[in-house]
Amino acid sequence: MDGVVLTSVPSVICGLSLRSVCLNRVNAGSRYHSPNTVSVLRTVNCVSSLSIHPPQKGSSFLRKRNCVATSRIVVKAAAASSVGNADENVEEPATSVKFQRSVALPGCSTTLSLLGTGFREKKFAIISVKVYAAGLYVNESILTGLNTWKGRSADEIQRDSSLFNSIFQDQAEKSLQIVLVRDVDGKTFWDALDEAISPRLKSPSPDDKTALSTFQGIFQNRPLNKGSVILLTWTSPSKMLVSVSSGGLPKDVDAAVESGSVTSALFDVFFGDSPVSPTLKSSLANQLAMVLK
């Protein structure tokens, strides 16, 4: 083990005798659009605190001092990030937009971790134009509820709508970060969202209509220039916070949308069977396949 450094964040001293490091989930890397240094989420086993002692009989040995329970171990992938600090950011390759690996967002009770990135492309006649990059952040506790899909391939995960529904129904927070890569006026942005949401609302109730009106009001008469950031944060399956800034992460919540039908429809827009950003859903499927090995 010469040259190997184990770094852990201690949370509980276990007092157990271990001679090796045991992990019940290891996420060793990523593929297209997925973070290339990944947190091993919700590691529940114990990791020995080890020290190297002088050689005995021609070989060194490891002696256990104590056992430390860890909730997070960061594993660096073999390849460095293509641009920027590989420890802090992930670059969405098609748009070159950088996403932080973990963020503290307005209205959230805890830090959220990046699970995948992608981009939205709009076709005008024969021309395809990239409109925004997007990244999904989740409370890491959500991953502990996905053991049913352990061992599934990325393709199987991507085709299984029940997994994404499980993520949505989880009471823990999750947030979609959208970064504009071209100038768009607020009305145009809303019209595109409404066009995708409306078919998913078969018979809108008065509460649904109020929620849609609140949602629409955020974008009316609002310019969304290149670099603008929009956060759609589900604090529960029936409540979504909307935050907008002209650049950088928003610091405040602009409005709360409270309708289970509307919040569910919007999640389905991005992660349902016909997502508006196939690359984002594919990225999540790749990452989840590695986390759930």
Automatic annotation (TrEMBL):
SUPFAM superfamilies: Chalcone isomerase (SSF54626)
Residue ranges annotated for the Chalcone isomerase domain, each copy included: 96-289
Annotated Gene Ontology cellular component terms: chloroplast stroma
Gene3D superfamilies given in the database record: 1.10.890.20, 3.50.70.10
InterPro entries: Chalcone_isomerase, Chalcone_isomerase_3-sand, Chalcone_isomerase_bundle_sf, Chalcone_isomerase_sf
Molecular function GO terms recorded: fatty acid binding; intramolecular lyase activity
GO biological process: fatty acid metabolic process
Similarity comment: family membership: Belongs to the chalcone isomerase family.
Record-given protein name: Chalcone-flavonone isomerase family protein
Lineage: Eukaryota, Viridiplantae, Streptophyta, Embryophyta, Tracheophyta
